[in-house]
Amino acid sequence: MHGSDIDSYIAEFDRLIDEAGYNRFDIGVLQKFKEGLQPSLVREVLTHVTPAPATLAAWKQKARERQTVYKELKNAGLHQKSTGDRPPHSRRGPRSLGSTLPDAGPESRQPRIPPPVLPR
């Protein structure tokens, strides 16, 4: 998924599935869809949707919903980067090794490689 455009990702994923001759019910298609999403979006879906989506259609719907919430929070100036359970950086002292990794949230502009076409 490039940036935070879930609709483009879904359209491209569907196009590639059709081009490869797969359908949404084939084994592995759902897993490839989730692998192509931003990790933070997968986390948002899994932590805010109960029960977790079980079908490709449900994952598409819930990913769109969580992305919409993210954009609305960001536009209202209410979105904060995830810090986990830790207090803000300035309050926790020296940085741990884990905190040196870049954030891969929806706000990340690093392009992601689209999921590969599944072998038949």
Q: Characterize the main sheet.
A: none
Structural class: mainly alpha
Radius of gyration: 16 Å
What is the 3D form? globular
Note the total helix count.
Answer: 4
Tell me the helix content.
40-55%
Low-confidence stretches: 83-110
Head-to-tail CA distance between termini = 23 Å
Strand content is under 5%
Note the run of SSEs as H and E: HHHH
Number of strands: 0
Oligomer: single chain
Average pLDDT for all residues? 77
The gist of it:
With 120 residues, the protein is mostly helical. Helix content is 44%, strand content 0%. Helix 3 packs across helix 4.
Keywords:
globular; mainly alpha; about 45% helix; 4 helices; about 120 residues
Walk me through what this model shows.
- With 120 residues, the chain is mostly helical.
- The chain has a domain at 6-78.
- It has helices spanning 6-20, 29-36, 39-48, 56-75.
- The radius of gyration is 16 Å and the shape is globular.
- Residues 83-110 have low confidence and may be disordered.
